[in-house]
Amino acid sequence: MEVLLPLPNNSLLLLPISITTGRGRAAPKPKRRRHCCRSSVEEIRVCNNRTCRRQGSLQTLETLAGVAPPSVTVKACGCLGRCGSGPNLVALPGGVVFGHCATAARSAEVMVVLCGADPDDAKKSLEALALRKKAEIELEKGSFLNAESLLSQAIELKPIGGINIIYKDRSRTRLAMSKYAEALEDAREALTFRTQYVEGHICQGDAFLAMNQFDLAEKSYLTALDIDPSIRRSKSFKVLLNSLRSK
Questions:
Q1: Which of 62, 63, 117, 223 ranks highest by number of CB atoms within 10 Å?
Q2: Spatial contact of 56 and 102, defined as CB atoms under 8 Å apart
């Protein structure tokens, strides 16, 4: 396994290490690579173990999910074995580990290195994420018009990362405003960026349900269930299905 850690001059150092799975077992050691192949990055896992959590890994997880391209999945994982260098994350396939990922700027730097992103595009993604977080606050206050405006501004930035999430959030916002056709359009836009986006299919189903297109709503919900069977245990998803069956 290899690790990329920051040097004093902000460059990156490649070192051999071994990591463990979430259950404490040593992960299979991959073939040595001289660098991370940017085009092959499919998944980024952020350590959610106790030490990294204290160092800010939950915020790192949220930031990376907001700036990663739609083709890259971001999720939590167990200990990566470099607790003194946390928060840590690993890019798969390839097993390249990054340390000291506690800031939004560092998360953007990781996206530049892993995905070959332009630094300006990574900056736009951070700006879009900030707007999306402001929109969440407005939604909590019931200020749907302000939330819609903030999310529209985020979309206009054309960020490389998190665009599917922004469209999903605007879909939900517009649904709450009874703008059903526009909510459906946003859900579909989210799915153009990531066809296997579970929340995008659920948002699409919600819009169809609000428009009394029950067959299409059921199809959208079942597609989401096929992608991620675990959502069957979700209380909110059960409510959706029960609502649909009562029609």
A1: 63
A2: yes
